[in-house]
From TrEMBL:
Residue intervals of the Rhodanese domain: 58-123
Natural source organism: Seleniivibrio woodruffii
Name of the molecule in the record: Rhodanese-like domain-containing protein
PROSITE patterns: RHODANESE_3 (PS50206)
Superkingdom of origin: Bacteria
Amino acid sequence: MKKKVTVIISALLVLVLAVFGIYAYIKNTPRSVKNPLPVPESGELTVEHAAPLFYDGLPADYVVVDVRTAEEYEKEHTEGTVNIPVALFEEAGACGRVMPLLPDTKKIIFVCPFGPRAEEMYYNLTDPKEDEGCGINAEGMYYLNAAVKFKPDRLVVR
């Protein structure tokens, strides 16, 4: 009887570990999208837009700007991304400091773990100056409104 209980407990433990392993694999796997959406000229990118772009790594014709704090970026980031913290806009004269840091040869995608800070960066830059924005042209500039995991070699968009 004791041997049967031990076998059952061992089998349950193996099953739990297998389920956990499958969950961890799925959670860290880029999402594939059956019907991807075309990328708009500017603005919001959702999973349906971005998953195909990031499936095999960072897209070559975009610069990915991580808008988290420098501390968050140092702790965990994806190689090839650029860190420009959105918190810079809490200080006066932010447009003059941030705009020179933005690349002008490629499209730009702002990212953060869930989207709100990326959206904030986008609108701080593209809102008109009279609305306290920087007033820059939004064409080719995007914010990713999706869950993002920062792996050393890629972003996982979910």
